[in-house]
Design brief:
Distance between the termini: 9 Å
Radius of gyration: 16 Å
CATH topology: Aminopeptidase
Number of strands: 9
Number of helices: 4
CATH class: Alpha Beta
Number of domains: 1
Strand order of the largest sheet: 1-2-3-4-5-7-6
Helix content: 25-40%
Structural class: alpha+beta
CATH architecture: 3-Layer(aba) Sandwich
């Protein structure tokens, strides 16, 4: 999937250093190198997507500007960690990453998606609600540094929406119109 100044692609172990830098810049309690390595190479359910700048973009060409770690476990897509560098936020990168993950999940017979998000992270909640995720529960004191509740959100069934707001229901072999 592509956007105006970035492209979405699968991540490999060679991207670990850049992913770690983004993780540390974006989260108050970031995953460690060892945790990220385990997800990248040791977890059969884990998938990583990168948002990488295209040539001619504002920063150095080819640099990673965001990533998404997600799991596909049977019929469920679980969004684990989503981060975009501060200078590249509000451009649709996070939306493209989530869309691609959900689309991949659909292609592998997933029918629902879940995630946890900090209660104070209104921007992320708005992003997920734009896909149709709904709040289903609160997990008290789930996060630390600072201690904060998590909002559990669910999209069941997975339905991908275009920018025009029309909804398209997908089945395991379905195709979709990319969001841009």
């Amino acid at each position: 999937m592509t956007g105006a100044a970035w492209m979405i692609e699968p991540a490999g172990a060679e991207s670990l250093g850049e992913i770690l830098k983004i993780e540390e810049a974006c989260f108050s309690a970031p995953w460690t190198r060892k945790m990220l390595e385990a997800e990248l190479s040791g977890n059969p359910f884990a998938h990583f997507l990168l948002a990488r700048e295209r040539e001619g973009a504002e920063s150095s060409a080819g640099s990673i500007v965001g990533y998404l770690c997600y799991w596909i476990v049977f019929e469920e897509v679980r969004l684990m960690n989503l981060a975009v560098i501060e200078s590249m936020r509000h451009r649709g990168i996070a939306r493209s990453l989530v869309f691609t993950a959900l689309e991949t999940g659909l292609s592998q017979a997933a029918s629902r998606a879940v995630l946890e998000v900090r209660a104070s992270n209104a921007a992320a909640q708005t992003l997920y609600q734009g896909f149709g995720f709904r709040r289903v529960a609160v997990r008290p004191k789930y996060y630390n540094q600072p201690i904060e509740d998590a909002v559990l959100m669910e999209l069941d069934p997975i339905v991908l929406r275009s920018d025009a707001g029309s909804s398209v229901r997908h089945n395991a072999g379905g195709h979709s119109k990319p969001l841009q």
